[in-house]
Design a protein that fits this description.
Layout (H helix, E strand, L loop, with lengths): L2 H22 L6 E3 L5 E3 H17 L4 E4 L3 E3 L4 E9 L1 H5 L6 E8 L2 E9 L4 E6 L3 E6 L2 E4 L12 E4 L9 H14 L2 E3 L4 H9 L5 E4 L4 H13 L3 E3 L13 E4 L1 H14 L1
Parallel strand pairs: 3-5, 11-12, 11-13
Antiparallel strand pairs: 1-2, 3-4, 5-6, 6-7, 7-8, 8-9, 9-10, 13-15, 14-15
Helix pairs in contact: 1-2, 4-7, 5-6
């Protein structure tokens, strides 16, 4: 399958998950715990089932790695599924969450889609084809911001549910970036954070403790929108690597310097 075909499959699957999240949003939640503060809801599971149905119909035989149900199938193409990124927000009624599906070939992101069901925004990208935002008003190309200086930048991060030993360094980095930038945010959804970097709404994003399904779509969105995505030391990003820095090229270099100093 071509990157465009994979993008369209990711979009159909993510939109199916997003419809489920929207339909269940105002209903009482069944909340369970995967860890001390790591939640899973009935909506996570229902949205994942909807996504997997689409993937099995549109890409039979392809591999799937989903947050709640794990790995299924095999092959050169694998879809990475986070049915509800921002579960804690969702469980508390905070309207900042999404459904996100990425496609990789031999470990390299090639296509992805992130859907914000309440805002009606669908962010899509395919390798070599650019990134787009689709809404009821139409489709427009995505580009990272032109920001190159920290003092002009609005930055975003998150804090890990596990790996709490990494929390002090992340808080230190958050404090330093807050001092040096125009502002820092924590939205509670890494997939939305990355989509917003691709759209130029946020200038940069960094985080640790993330899983492949959290970032698979976001990585290709940022790259196809003209941004850089690496680890904190500037080396190549790995989907299963746990840490990520995404920003426009010039700002990316400034953020690397800060992260190096904090570490």
């Amino acid at each position: 399958m071509t990157p465009v075909e994979l993008r369209d499959i990711c979009a159909a699957a993510a939109e199916a998950g997003a419809r489920t999240l929207r339909d269940l949003y105002d209903r009482p939640r069944d909340v369970q715990f995967k860890g001390r503060i790591d939640l899973v809801t009935d909506a996570d599971k229902a949205a994942e089932e909807a996504i997997i149905r689409v993937l099995r119909e549109r890409a039979p035989g392809s591999g799937i790695l989903a947050e709640e149900s794990g790995a299924q199938g095999g092959g050169d193409v694998r879809f990475l599924v986070d049915p509800l990124d921002g579960t804690t927000n969702y469980a508390h009624g905070l309207p900042m969450f999404c459904s996100t599906v990425g496609a990789e070939e031999k470990g390299i992101p090639v296509a992805g889609c992130t859907v914000d069901p309440l805002r009606g925004e669908t962010f899509v990208a395919a390798r070599g084809q650019g990134a787009e935002l689709r809404t009821e008003k139409g489709t427009r190309p995505l580009h990272v911001s032109g920001t190159s200086e920290l003092i002009e930048a609005l930055l975003c991060s998150g804090f890990p549910y596990g790996d709490r030993d990494k929390l002090p360094k992340m808080i230190a980095a958050f404090g330093k970036f807050t001092e040096l930038s125009r502002g820092t945010r924590r939205l509670g959804s890494a997939a939305i954070d990355l989509a917003y970097v691709a759209a130029g709404r946020l200038d940069g994003f960094w985080e640790v403790g993330l899983k492949a399904w959290d970032v698979a779509a976001g990585v290709i969105l940022v790259q196809e929108a003209g941004g850089l995505v690496t680890r904190f030391d500037g080396s190549a990003h790995r989907l299963a690597g746990g840490e990520i820095l995404a920003a426009p090229p010039a700002l990316h270099a400034r953020m690397l310097q800060v992260l190096s100093a904090v570490r």
